[in-house]
Amino acid sequence: MNKLRTALATAAAAALGLAALATAPAQAAAQPAFLAASQMPPSSTPWTATQVFTGVPENGGVLCAPYKIPAQNTRYREFSTELDTNGVQVTTVARTEADAVKLVDTLRGALAGCGTLLGQQNPGLLQAVSASHGKLAVEEGAWVYSLDTADPQIGISDIHLFSVGRDGRTVTLVRWGQMGDLEDAPLTAFRTTTKTAVNKLH
Questions:
Q1: Rounded to an integer, what is the distance from CA 119 to the centroid of its chain?
Q2: Where are the alpha helices (DSSP H) in 67-124?
Q3: Are the beta carbons of 167 and 202 closer than 8 angstroms?
Q4: Each residue's pLDDT tens digit, 110-140
Q5: Contact 51, 42 (CB under 8 A)
Q6: Which of left, alpha, beta for 45 (phi over 0: left; psi -120 to 50: alpha)?
Q7: Cα(192)–Cα(194) distance, integer angstroms
Q8: Over the stretch 149-187, which tens digit does the pLDDT of each residue have?
Q9: How many angstroms separate the CA atoms of 94 and 106, rounded?
Q10: Burial group, residue 99, by CB count within 10 angstroms (0-12, 13-18, 19+)
Q11: Are strands 170-179 and 86-93 parallel, antiparallel or unpaired?
C-alpha cells in the first residue's frame, strides 16, 4: 500500500510539473493589450481598427519619430474614420526597464522638437509648430504633444496629437491626426485615450 501511495504521489507531482510547463509558455507569450476603436477620441463617424501587426508601421515608426522605435518586440494597430481622421498605436517591450526609460526620453525629444525639424527640412514650404501639453499621472507616466502644420502654398493645415507612456518595460506611443488646427483637436479626450492605452498595457 505504501508503494502504491508513493507511486501515486510521484505521478501527481509529475502531472503538476507538466501542467506548470504547459502554462509557462502561455504566460510568457502574453502581450500588451491595445486600444479598441471605440477608445479613440470621439469622432463624427465611427472609428475602425486594423488587426495588431508585428513590427513598426511602414514609415519606420510614426510622424516625428521615424526609426526611433525598434522593430524587435514591437507591434502596432492603425485606426481610421470615414472623414480622414486617423491614428496609430505602437507598443514595444524593451529588454530592461532602463532601456524603456531611455526609449521614452528619445521619443519625447523627437516629439518636442518635431516642428522645428520639419521646418528646417522644408524651408519656405511648410510651417510647423510643436507644443507640449504636460504629463499624465498613469503608471510610470505619459506625456502629450501636438504638431500643427500648414502648407502656405496650397492652404492646407493638419493637426496631430501624440503621446508616449510607459508601464515597466513596456512603452507605447499613440498618434491622432486630421485636417485642421490645434483648436479643432480633442485634446481632453486624447488625454483620456492615452491613459486608457497605458492602463491596458498590463
A1: 25
A2: 97-112, 114-121
A3: yes
A4: 999 999 988 888 888 889 999 999 999 999 9
A5: no
A6: beta
A7: 5
A8: 998 888 889 999 999 999 999 999 999 999 999 998 999
A9: 13
A10: middle
A11: antiparallel
